[in-house]
Design a protein that fits this description.
The chain has about 800 residues and is α/β, with parallel strands linked by helices. It has 28 helices and 29 strands. Aspartic acid (ASP) binds near residues 45, 113, 177, 191 and 193.
Amino acid sequence: MKVLKFGGKSLANGEGINQVIAIIAKKYFEGETISVVVSARGNATDDLLDILEEAKKGNKYAAALTEFKKYQTNNSEAALFESEFSILEKLFEGVSLLGDYSEKIKDQIVSFGEILSAKYVTSILNGKGLKARFVDARELIKTDATFGNAQPIDAETEKNIKKAFEDYDGISIVTGFIASTLQGETTTLGRNGSNYTASLLANYLDAEEFQNFTHVDGIYTANPDLVSDAKKIERLSFNEANELANFGANILHAKTIIPLVEKNIPLRILNVFNPENKGTLITSEQTNEGIKSLSILDNVSLINLEGRGLLGKTGVDARIFKVMADNNISVSIISQGSSERGIGIVVNTEKASEALTGLEKEFETDFYTRDVNKITVDDNISVISIIGQDLSTFHKPYTALIRNKIVPILFNNTSTGRNISLVIKKPDLKRALNVIHGEIFGVSKKINIAIFGHGLVGGTLIDQILSSAKTIEEKKGIKLNVFAIANSTKILLDKNGVKENWKSQISEKGTSYSIQDIIQFANDNHLENLIAVDNTASKDFVQNYIQLIENSFDVVSSNKVANTLSYDFYKKLRNALEKNQKNYLYETNVGAGLPLIDTIKLLHLSGENITKIKGVFSGSLSFIFNHFSVEDKTFSEVLKKAISNGYTEPDPREDLCGNDVARKLLILARELDLQNEFDEIQIQNLIPEELREIPTDEFLNNLHKLDGFYEKVKENQIKGNVLRYVGELSGDLQQDKGNLEVKLVPVPESSALGQLKGSDSIFEIYTESYGERPIVIQGAGAGASVTARGVFGDILRIADKN
Ligand code: ASP
Ligand code: MG
C-alpha cells in the first residue's frame, strides 16, 4: 500500500482540489492500493485561528465564519457539514462569551479544518463511484494531553490503526494533524502535522511508499523565489532530509522522518499541479556526493555580550542559557571566541527584547564591576545555512562572498553534521544566497557588467558580448549580463540584461544618472560579480573609478586617462584596488588588442630585467610614415589619405602632437614601477608651431604648409633608412625614473621597425635574458573591433578569476 498525503494549498478550491481527485481516481482505477491523508483545505487552519482571536476579543466574526463555510462547502450540498458547522458556531459563541479560550478549545476548533476536508474529499470520490470512506484520526491516534503539540502513544495508536485497516479494501480518507487523548479529548500534532499523521500511518501499515503531494516540484537547492538558478534535488537520504528539516525547509515536519526511517519507507515529494514530475525521492540510501542546499532563517536577531572581564570566568554561558531557558527562548546559533571576550547568540526577533531585558538583569552586577561592557541586539540580520557543507571546501563560497563585499558577521559550523551557518546583514541576504549558490552548485556564474561609452569601441563591444554570450555560457559556465549602458548624459538599466535593440532602447528609455544611481541599482537588485567598463575618453569619468571599486566593481578600461594622470593618482587607484581586492585591467590602453601590457607585467613580475622598450605606438603615425618614407608623395598628400581612411582623430593634430604616443609610453613605464610624470616625457611635436593654435578647419585647409619641413627631412635621409615616429623608454630602469622620449627617427629599412607595413604597431621589448634580440609584438594596434575584442578579453579574464 502507498500512503498519499495532500497539503492545504493542493486541496484549495479550483485546480488544486480537481487535480487531487483526478490523481486519487487514476490510482484507484489502475488498481493501486492507497490510503490518503489530508490537511485542512486552503487556509482553513489560519482562518479558524483568526476567527477564534476575534471571538475572544468580543469582536464580530459572523461574516468571516460565513465566508469560511462558503469556501469549505465549495458548491457541494450544504447538508454535508451541518453538524460540524453547528458545533463550530457553538464553540465560537462560548469563546466570545468567556472572552478567552484554552489550548484544548483551540485544538477542538482547528480540528474542523481537517474534518471538513476529509469529509469533502470522501463525498466527491463516492460521487464518482469510488469506494472510499471518511476516517477520523482521533479514533486512531492516541496522544498525551499536550494540546497544540501532542505526542502519540505508540502502542495504542499502532493497535488502533492496524485494526481499522485490517479488512477494508477501499480508499480511506484520513484527517491529518488531529488526534485525541485516551479520554477522547481532541488534540493536534503541531502545525503542519498532517505529514506526521501520514508517516505514522505509513509506518504502522508497512506502506511501500509515502507520497507527499505539495504545490512545488520537490526540494530545491535554495528557495526558487530568492535564487532563480535554484535546482530541484532528485534524491536525498533521510539524514540529509533531517538536516534540511531542522533548518526550516518547511516541506518536512521535523518529526515526520523518524517513523519512515524505522521501517525504511521511501518518501517522495510530489507536485499536485505537475503530476508528471518525478519530484524528490528520500530514502535511507546515502547519496555519494552529499547534498548541498541553502536554507535561511529570517526574523532572527543577534544578541552580543561583550566584556573584558569575561575571560576565564566560569558559568557565564550557563547564566546566559539560564536566562534563555527561564524565558522559554530557543537559541539557534551560539558563537564564542576562545578569548571569551564576546559571546553572540541568535534568537527569534520576537523574543529578542525579552532576552535583552533578561540578560541585563542577570549581568547587572557585572556591568557595575565592568566585567561586561555592553549587551546589544541587532535585528537587521539573517542566517544562511549551507547544508551538506563541511570546512574542507568552505573557502570557495566564503571567498566568493568576500569578493562581493559581503562580510559575514559570524559563522558557525556543527561538529557533528555537515553544515555551516553564516550570520549576515539582512540587506545582503538575496545577493549572498545567489553568490553562494552559484559557487557551490557550479551553475553558471553571472557576471554583471556596466558599460560606459557606447560609441565606436563601446558599441562594438556590446554587440560582441551579446552575440557570444550564449557560447561563453555553454563553454565556460559564465553568464555575461550587461545590466547598464551609459554615455555622459543617459543610462539604460535592465537587471536582466540589455538585448540586441539596446540602441533604440537607450534613446527611448535612457534617463540621466549619477554613479551613485548605478551603485544603488546594483545593490537594490542584488547583482553580484560587478564589472564597470570604461570605453570613454573622458577625464571626468575616471574620477568615479575609486568609488566604483569601493562598491565592489572590478574595472576594465580602454580609456587611458586613469593611467596617465599624476603618479599620485596612479598610486591612490592601486591602493584602493588592493584594499578592496578588486581588479583593474586595461590591455587596450597600448597597442589595442595586442597582448602587450600583460606580457610586460608578467616579465616584470617574474623578475626579468627589462632594459628598453621601443616601438611605433600609433596606428595613424605608422601609416603616415610607412607611406611617406618610401612613396614619391608630399607629406600632406599622405596625411590626407590617412584622414580619408579614418586612421586619424577628426583633428589630426591630436595624433601629430605626439601626446597619444607619449601617454602610451608612460603607461608602459609605470608597469615597470617607474614613477615618471607626463611632463617629464620629451615629445617631438610634429606640427609646426604656427599651425598649433589655429582652428581645425583652418588647419585642414593649410596642410600643404607641413610639406616644406618634411621634404627636407626626407632629402637628408641616408639611403637605406626610413622614417619612423617612435616611443622609447631607456635609461637605468631599476631606478625610480626612466628616460621617456617620443621622436621621429631614421631606422634601417631592413630592421624590424623599418619593415613595418600599413597601420600596424610594433613593440620591441629588450630584456637582460633576451639580450640584443628583443621580444617583438606586432600587429593591428588600432581600430574599433580589435580594441573591443581586447576589452572583451579583459572582461573574461576577470570573470574567470571571480
Ligand atoms: N492544517 C494544519 C496546519 O495548517 C496541519 C497541516 O496542514 O499539516 O498547520
Ligand atoms: Mg594592448
